[in-house]
Amino acid sequence: MSTLESITDAFFILNHEWRFTYLNQQAERLLQRDRNDLVGKFIWEEFPEAINGIFYREYHRAMSEKCTVGFEEYFDPLETWFEVNAYPSEEGLAVYFRDITERKAAQRIMHESEERFRNIARATADAVWDWDMKTDVMWWNDGIHTLFGYSPKEIESDISSWTSRIHPDEKDQILAEVHHAIDSGAGSWTGEYRFRRKDGSYAYVWDRSFIIRDEYGKAVRMLGGKNDITESKLQQARLTQQAELLDKAHDAIIIRDMDNHVSFWNKGAERLYGWTAEEVAGRHLEEFLYEDTKGFRTAMEELQKNGEWRGELEPIHKNGKRLIIEAHWTLIQDDAGYPESILAINTDITQRKAAEHEIQYLAFYDQLTQLPNRQLMLDRLQRAINATSRNGQHGALLFIDLDNFKILNDTLGHDIGDLLLQQVAQRLTTCIRESDSLSRLGGDEFVVMLENLGGDSLEAASQAETIGEKILAALNESYSLSDYEHQCTPSIGITLFSNQEHNMDELQKRADLAMYQAKGEGRNTIRFFDPDMQAAITNRITLEADLRSGLKQNDFLVYYQPQIVKDGKLLGAEALLRWQHPSRGLVSPTEFIPLAEDTGLILPLSEFVLMTACNQLVAWAQHPETAELNLSVNISARQFHHRDFVDQVLGTLAKSGANPENLTLELTESLLVEDMESVISKMTTLKSRGISFSLDDFGTGYSSLSYLKRLPLDILKIDQSFIRDLLTDPSDEAIVRTVISLGQSLELAVIAEGVETGETREALINIGCHVYQGYLFSHPLPIEEFNKFIRKMQTETITNKV
Ligand SMILES: Nc1nc2c(ncn2[C@@H]2O[C@H](COP(=O)(O)O[C@H]3[C@@H](O)[C@H](n4cnc5c(=O)[nH]c(N)nc54)O[C@@H]3COP(=O)(O)O)[C@@H](O)[C@H]2O)c(=O)[nH]1
Which UniProt keywords apply (predicted)? Predict the structure, then answer.
């Protein structure tokens, strides 16, 4: 019995009266009863629940038929599954039993999951397979029929049903992969390969499986499912083929899936972005192409909405450089009409954009100062004018012109002039707000446009003036131009605008006029446009028309103002132009000479004066008493700088027959600052023919000794502004003295003009000036009057001698 105590199974013996005669310890434990209590007891009384079940039936069968029985049964009172084997014996019945509750539970779970798996396998469209590796039984669901055409009868029930249908080219590779997965302890295996259909053709399949292992890790089962990916493979192949055809295209051609993972990347894309196809395959575009994904995502939304998208994007080259591309994206759909992938054809327009930008820049920006140019200024002005009618605000236009910039440019050279303009541009930038606009119109002209100066014109004017003052102060600071310290001042003209009252042209004219007014009033100042200026400009227009018709109708005359030597002798006269206007009477040259200069009419006028003067010299030459008289003729800057000037003078002399020795040309200082070498050359040529030169208005300009020394001059003419107050203003007297001594040292004659009184004449004699012109002797006279004056002078001289 001790053997029966030590066996793992529970064991008891029943006699022929169904009473327990023996129970081992295991039986005591499983039945949860004390064996001493049970021995001698009637089994069906102790366990009445067993009477109506399999226990009762099978035990009776074993006892009556003397056969061995074995069964598994659940015994409710003990909530236990038993595996029972009963053997009839002499004594009665020997019963071995064990608790299989846990095994039963595992079997149930296994059964349930198996059931679930089969149900899923039935429901799925994939071809599901189940390979029992211990038995080599291979189970397939209906998918093997629906996908590949095999009926259950046609398909083998072992692993050959799978392996024999793998495409020969891929079979070894796939089997090696599967073996590797099994041997390496992997939990799954996936693969893509071709699988033969019943009709002999091959389908591309995507197989996913997992491997079931026992408690020792040994693979016992493999379950998997294949789906047919032939269509998408073919589609992909077709696209790739098409795209490969375009591989040689210059453009970048990219195919990506709907999640933007790259599936095709042609050579053009490699060239454009610097990434090779291998480097980007399967990668998300945003990962490596777009720093700012906003534009890219907006484009994606459009693409999904409309099926295609065209536009510009700014991707990044592999080397970090920003590119600009023109993209054309098309959504590619599968047979069912679902979006499947995206075909992108991208053209590099980086250089084109740069060129466009450059052109734009050149068209709208000044190269020297990098400021907006006139074109852009006009555009902004138009917008500002339009805005005033909407917002009721005032704006202001400030025209800024540098005083005497030309002199700097001509004397120190254009490079220095450019430096000044650049520094002026910088200073102007610091004087304005970011919302204001600064531009360079060209030359030394700058424009500042101020906006949003409020609804009240006085307030707006005051704000504009404040900015104007600021500019004035900033530009007055000294400039360091290479090695030169330079002082420069601006003249500023301001006009306000509001409510679209004036158009762009008008506003520009107004600001320009105001600026000229500032210049006219001594420079380095600010002037606002006012309506009187408008009247002046209207007059100017009328005057120009009158000048033209005056020239045609010979309304011009020459007057002569005598020039007298200290001893009373008549040296000659200055020829002065007069305009006998039909309605306005005699018009002073101060009124029309500047306009004639601006319009070019000074050329025919000057020709007329020179010809008249030369003819007069010829007329005087006929009489010994007047043959020595000299005539001075004023030469304007424009006339002098005309390329035919020398020929014109010589031609007039030749035509008239006048003696050049009796002709003096009066030049002004401002005329001399432009192209010094050409000035000297022209003067030298004329001087070699006997013509003299006088420097008019001396002292009022930039009396530079350096040029004075180089010019072939004969006479310095002291400006009348110094003569007027000679007796009362010590500084004027000092200037006059200086000019006279300068004349002496340079061996130049000196004439004082504007001599109105005897006292002035006396003072000049005392200082050392011996030739005079002025009202003391005579106003400018018409020729008849002047001839009378000559005769009177000669009579007086003779009388004095007598
Ligand atoms: N390019 C040309 N310029 C010319 C010509 N003719 C004249 N002008 C220039 O016009 C300016 C005004 O000239 P005008 O009104 O003739 O005045 C001259 C004299 O009348 C005046 N003057 C002479 N004496 C006195 C005086 O005692 N007091 C006083 N207040 N004015 C006086 O001075 C003018 C002469 O100036 P200038 O020529 O500088 O010697 C004047 O700038 C003329 O130059 C012409 O044909 N071409």
Answer: c-di-GMP
- 3-state class (DSSP) for residue 740: helix
- Residues with CB under 6 Å of ligand 1 are 561, 574, 576-577, 588-590, 593, 606, 609, 634, 636, 696-697, 720, 753-756, 773-775, 780
Query: What is the helix (H) or strand (E) element at residue 11, kind and residue range?
Result: strand 10-15
What are the pLDDT digits (tens) for 429-469? 999 998 899 999 999 999 999 999 988 887 888 889 889 99
pLDDT of 686 reads: 97
Q: How much is the pTM?
A: 0.47
In this predicted structure, what is the pLDDT of residue 460? Answer: 86
Kindly provide the residue ranges of all beta strands, DSSP E only, lying in 258-371, ordered along the sequence: 262-265, 308-313, 325-333, 339-348
pLDDT in tens, 175-221: 999 999 999 998 899 999 999 999 999 999 999 998 988 878 899 99
DSSP, res 504: H
**Minimal-distance CA residue to ligand 1 atom 20:** 780
Cα–Cα distance measured from residue 432 to residue 697, given in angstroms and rounded to the nearest whole number: 40
All structural domains of the chain = 2-99 (3.30.450.20), 106-235 (3.30.450.20), 249-353 (3.30.450.20), 365-529 (3.30.70.270), 557-801 (3.20.20.450)
Helix/strand/coil (H, E, C) string of 549-578?
HHHHCCCEEEEEEEEEECCCCEEEEEEEEE
What is d(CA 769, CA 718) in angstroms, rounded to the nearest whole number? Answer: 10
Q: Tell me: ipTM over 0.90.
A: yes
Q: Which of 571, 720, 724, 760 to mutate to test the pocket of ligand 1 (most atoms within 8 A of CB)?
A: 720
What backbone phi and psi angles, to 5 degrees, belong to 59?
-60, -45
Q: Give the residue-averaged pLDDT of 230-237.
A: 83
- Residue length of the chain: 802
Task: Please give the average per-residue pLDDT across 719-743, as a whole number.
Answer: 90
Segment 620-625 long-range contacts (CB within 8 Å, at least 24 positions apart): 620/662, 621/658, 621/659, 621/662, 625/790, 625/794
User: What distance in Å separates the CA atoms of residue 366 and residue 378, rounded to the nearest whole number?
Assistant: 14
